[in-house]
Amino acid sequence: SNPLLSLPVLQAAHCQMIKDLSACLLGQNLRVDCRYENKTDNPLTYEFSITKDNRKHVIHSTISVSENIYRSRANVTMHKNLVCLHLQSFTTSDEGIYMCELRATNDYTGNQIKNITVIKDKLEKCAGFSLLIQNTSWLLLLLLSLPLLQAVDFVSL
């Protein structure tokens, strides 16, 4: 890890720090990974939003209310140092500036915000199995790759 991140000065300044925001396509779905450096055990709240035509639309959030058009299509998974937005059936109408906002309870340093511009034609496919293993959908992929009969037995365990 970067020795600079462990400096006490930085720890005092930020309890949680967004390190990286990336987007990729997993089949027809968009995945936005918001990676952060965790400096506190306090509960983390998040908000994923999109800005298009100069309007902000909340996609999924524990901070405010998400918009109806996204609510049925979006879900968020949380892992160690990673908050992951999954948006189903991604199309060009979902292009825009995606924003990840993180806030730790009782953290007075303010919110951490990072933006990424998402354009369908420029998106890469999500990296292979190593990333997926953090994600619940790896089980689904495993099932799909097994012969049908075995998969049925596997489900009924």
UniProtKB/TrEMBL annotation:
<keyword id="KW-0336">GPI-anchor</keyword>
<keyword id="KW-1003">Cell membrane</keyword>
<dbReference type="GO" id="GO:0030334">
    <property type="term" value="P:regulation of cell migration"/>
</dbReference>
<protein>
    <recommendedName>
        <fullName>Thy-1 membrane glycoprotein</fullName>
    </recommendedName>
</protein>
<comment type="function">
    <text>May play a role in cell-cell or cell-ligand interactions during synaptogenesis and other events in the brain.</text>
</comment>
<dbReference type="Pfam" id="PF07686">
    <property type="entry name" value="V-set"/>
</dbReference>
<keyword id="KW-0732">Signal</keyword>
<dbReference type="InterPro" id="IPR013783">
    <property type="entry name" value="Ig-like_fold"/>
</dbReference>
<dbReference type="GO" id="GO:0005925">
    <property type="term" value="C:focal adhesion"/>
</dbReference>
<dbReference type="GO" id="GO:0051894">
    <property type="term" value="P:positive regulation of focal adhesion assembly"/>
</dbReference>
<feature type="domain" description="Immunoglobulin V-set">
    <location>
        <begin position="29"/>
        <end position="102"/>
    </location>
</feature>
<dbReference type="GO" id="GO:0005178">
    <property type="term" value="F:integrin binding"/>
</dbReference>
<dbReference type="InterPro" id="IPR033292">
    <property type="entry name" value="THY1"/>
</dbReference>
<dbReference type="GO" id="GO:0009897">
    <property type="term" value="C:external side of plasma membrane"/>
</dbReference>
<dbReference type="GO" id="GO:0030425">
    <property type="term" value="C:dendrite"/>
</dbReference>
<keyword id="KW-0873">Pyrrolidone carboxylic acid</keyword>
<dbReference type="InterPro" id="IPR013106">
    <property type="entry name" value="Ig_V-set"/>
</dbReference>
<dbReference type="GO" id="GO:0043209">
    <property type="term" value="C:myelin sheath"/>
</dbReference>
<keyword id="KW-0449">Lipoprotein</keyword>
<dbReference type="GO" id="GO:0005096">
    <property type="term" value="F:GTPase activator activity"/>
</dbReference>
<dbReference type="GO" id="GO:0007155">
    <property type="term" value="P:cell adhesion"/>
</dbReference>
<keyword id="KW-0393">Immunoglobulin domain</keyword>
<keyword id="KW-1015">Disulfide bond</keyword>
<keyword id="KW-0325">Glycoprotein</keyword>
<keyword id="KW-0472">Membrane</keyword>
<dbReference type="InterPro" id="IPR036179">
    <property type="entry name" value="Ig-like_dom_sf"/>
</dbReference>
<dbReference type="GO" id="GO:0045121">
    <property type="term" value="C:membrane raft"/>
</dbReference>
<dbReference type="GO" id="GO:0007229">
    <property type="term" value="P:integrin-mediated signaling pathway"/>
</dbReference>
